[in-house]
Specification:
By secondary structure, this protein is an alpha+beta fold. It folds into two domains: 132 residues, Diaminopimelate Epimerase, Chain A, domain 1; 144 residues, Diaminopimelate Epimerase, Chain A, domain 1 (Roll). It is built from six helices and 18 strands. It has an 18-stranded mixed beta sheet that branches. A hairpin with an 8-residue loop joins β16 and β17. α3 runs antiparallel to α5. It is globular and about 55 Å long.
């Protein structure tokens, strides 16, 4: 029987039992792809990560990310949470402020903002802008009226994982929305790769958000770091968020499902031309061992 130690941390929160839980296996050497997927399904969290020696130069570690049903090319809360564990396990040099993680999407830059507890930032991979969608169709798919949507057309934006961003008028509309497989099928084009549906409304602090990913085995995600950089870009493009270099705002996500998460956004360069960073705090919860 093999035995593997793992940690569970709550990501994008300073409070236990909030944010987005993540399982991290700090040393997954010897575990094959099939077993990794089975372990992720067993734990049944939004994602589970497996740390391996890096395959790219100038990277601290290779990180493989699995939902209960598939492997991801990139994901935000697993990147932030795994970075915390690497620091906490002293697998990164003492007082590290910058390093790269080797993920399927490529090297992901990490920045550590030191303090009483570190705030960890990732740099969002390059964005790809896709097609726009009919507002009325999206409203119907979410169980809403077209009047619940703001004027910008819903649009597909990806930083490795495609998300359809839909701007709603207020928090009430965000909380009332729901997406099932029929609604998702109405939005997706036949044959299109798996997509997530990200809904939000602008707030004085930034955005109030929810995200649905049924094709990834996650009906609703408490915090979606991979979508938050694209969210910021979409909001800036439609004058829903500040565009100035150095602007900071946040996305509050997961509140409706009782897992309040705070995702911080740093805009580098006007409209993020110098990159968009997504950051947050991590709270450790479980240290355990799995044998199989």
């Amino acid at each position: 029987m093999s035995s593997y130690r793992y940690r569970v941390v709550d990501v994008f929160t300073e409070h236990a039992l909030e944010g987005n839980p993540l399982a991290v296996f700090p040393d997954a050497s010897g575990m094959d792809d099939v077993t990794m997927q089975k372990v992720a399904k067993e734990l049944n969290l939004s994602e589970t990560t497996f740390v391996l020696p890096p395959t790219r130069p100038n990277c601290l570690a290779r990180v493989r990310i699995f939902t209960p049903t598939r492997e991801m090319v990139f994901a935000g809360h697993p990147t932030i949470g795994t970075s915390f564990v690497l620091l906490d396990e002293k697998m990164a040099p003492a007082n590290s402020e910058r390093f790269n993680l080797d993920e399927n999407v490529g090297p992901v830059p990490i920045r550590v903002e030191q303090g009483a507890r570190p705030r960890i930032w990732l740099t969002t991979p390059p964005l790809q802008w896709g097609r726009s969608f009919d507002r009325s169709m999206c409203a119907k798919a979410l169980g809403l009226d077209a009047g619940d949507l703001l004027d910008p057309a819903p649009q597909l934006v990806s930083a490795g994982n495609p998300n359809v961003f839909i701007a709603l008028k207020d928090k009430n509309a965000v909380d009332r929305a729901w997406l099932d497989s029929t609604g998702l099928a109405a939005i997706k084009e036949r044959g299109q790769e798996a997509v997530c549906i990200f809904i939000f409304t602008p707030t004085p602090e930034g955005a109030y958000s929810r995200m649905f990913a049924p094709e990834h085995g996650v009906m609703e995600d408490p915090a979606t770091g991979s979508a938050t950089g694209p969210l910021a870009a979409y909001m800036m493009r439609h004058n829903l968020a500040p565009k100035a270099a150095g602007a900071r705002f946040l996305s509050e996500q997961g509140t409706k499902m009782g897992r309040r998460s705070i995702l911080y956004i740093q805009v580098n360069g006007v409209e993020g031309i110098g990159g968009i960073e997504v950051g947050g705090y991590v709270t450790p919860l479980v240290d355990a061992t799995m044998g199989f």
